[in-house]
């Protein structure tokens, strides 16, 4: 059996149940600028950041779309919600993190969200102590589905000893491109069969991942 040394977590839709929340807040803001955001449109942006996200938003809303203003306002709103209410944590996440801590397996985050927001979200619900490092979207030159962010989060850990947890198609593609094993925990949208085939397996929740890890790795 293989050894597991590091688990790389995505954040939005994986640790936090934030995708629907972000979509609703973004829809409110873009409406003020005269645009309409549908669920189908939002799904196309999942896992993207930087130039890739900008290009997608322009294709959806046009060249004049005020991306920076909208994103800033939506992130500010989410930060306010995180501070006042705390963001909803996905089922099984706390138990999975505690299990990995007990097994002395390093946990890190690789998310398209900016690092400063990730830090705030984790602190608001008391999860910051479980992660040894955070790689935010600004740390990678290329957005998912390119492998950059996962390779950076991997560091010196051998690829064979790492595992990625992802919910989105772009995230699964990025992990596969990085040659790191990935488990899919679907959130807003079930990835296509072709993308699912790139993952080790699909889990219903983080609680299921705990059992999958137990059955796959010798040190668990």
Automatic annotation (TrEMBL):
The name on file for this protein is HAD family phosphatase
Q: Supply the InterPro entries for this chain.
A: HAD-like_sf, HAD-SF_hydro_IA, HAD_2, HAD_sf, PGP-like_dom2
**Pfam families, per this entry?**
HAD_2
> Which species does the entry assign this protein to?
Candidatus Ornithomonoglobus merdipullorum
Q: State the Gene3D superfamilies in the record.
A: HAD superfamily/HAD-like, Putative phosphatase, domain 2
């Amino acid at each position: 059996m293989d050894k597991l040394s590091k688990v790389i977590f995505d954040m939005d839709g994986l640790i936090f149940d934030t995708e629907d929340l972000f979509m609703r807040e973004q829809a409110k803001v873009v409406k003020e600028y005269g645009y309409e955001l549908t669920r189908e449109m939002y799904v196309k942006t999942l896992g993207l950041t930087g130039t890739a996200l900008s290009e997608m938003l322009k294709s959806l809303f046009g060249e004049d779309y005020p991306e920076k203003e909208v994103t800033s306002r939506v992130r500010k709103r989410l930060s306010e919600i995180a501070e006042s209410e705390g963001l909803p944590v996905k089922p099984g996440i706390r138990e999975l993190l505690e299990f990995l801590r007990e097994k002395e397996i390093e946990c890190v985050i690789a998310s398209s969200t900016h690092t400063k927001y990730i830090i705030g979200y984790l602190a608001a619900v008391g999860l910051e102590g479980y992660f040894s490092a955070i790689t935010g979207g600004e740390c990678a030159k290329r957005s998912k589905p390119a492998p950059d962010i996962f390779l950076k989060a991997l560091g010196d850990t051998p690829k064979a000893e790492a595992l990625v947890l992802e919910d989105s198609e772009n995230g699964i593609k990025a992990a596969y491109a990085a040659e790191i094993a990935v488990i899919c925990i679907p959130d807003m949208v079930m990835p296509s069969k072709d993308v699912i085939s790139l993952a080790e397996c699909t889990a219903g929740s983080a609680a299921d991942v705990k059992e999958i890890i137990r059955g796959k790795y010798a040190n668990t």
